[in-house]
Design goal:
This protein has 137 residues and is an alpha+beta fold. The chain has a single domain, classed as HIT family, subunit A (2-Layer Sandwich), CATH 3.30.428. The chain contains 3 helices and 5 strands; from the N terminus they run αβββαββα. It has a 5-stranded antiparallel β-sheet with strand order 1-2-3-5-4, with helices on one face.
């Protein structure tokens, strides 16, 4: 994995507004926020996408995401939020180091906007696909 801006932030080479740090996780305010309190949560492990992340780092992020979400809500007064995590350029990932966005959503509309275009579900194909995915876990 290449050296990313997040690697440099973790090492202290680039300043940030840190909100949390432990052995496995680092969190800081996004400098291009969608709303007040937009926070990035990253593993200290260098992995480009979630599927490349170790179980240990993934568990560490899973443990702190709820706590950080509560802290962001309390500090901003927001009552709703989105968690966003993109993997790969086609999925809009811009920094190739795993990261989760905690994005507060406010009554005035600031925050993440989503367009969700559902597709028809084929139950026969779905059953075959579920079997194939389950076999690979």
């Amino acid at each position: 994995m290449s050296d990313t801006i997040f690697s440099k932030i973790i090492r202290g080479e680039i300043p940030c507004h840190k909100v949390y740090e432990d052995k496995h996780v680092f969190a800081f305010l996004d400098i291009g926020p969608l709303s007040r309190g937009h926070t990035l949560v990253i593993p200290k492990e260098a992995a480009a996408t979630l599927d490349q992340l170790s179980d240990e780092s993934a568990a560490a992020i899973g443990r702190v995401l709820p706590r950080l979400s509560r802290a962001v809500l309390k500090a901003t007064g927001a009552t709703a939020f989105n968690i966003l995590q993109n993997n790969g350029a086609a999925a809009h990932q811009a920094v190739f180091h795993v990261h989760f966005h905690i994005i507060p959503k406010f009554e005035n509309g600031t925050g993440l906007g989503i367009r969700w275009e559902s597709q028809k579900f084929d139950h026969g194909a779905g059953a075959a696909l579920a079997t194939e995915i389950a076999a690979s876990v």
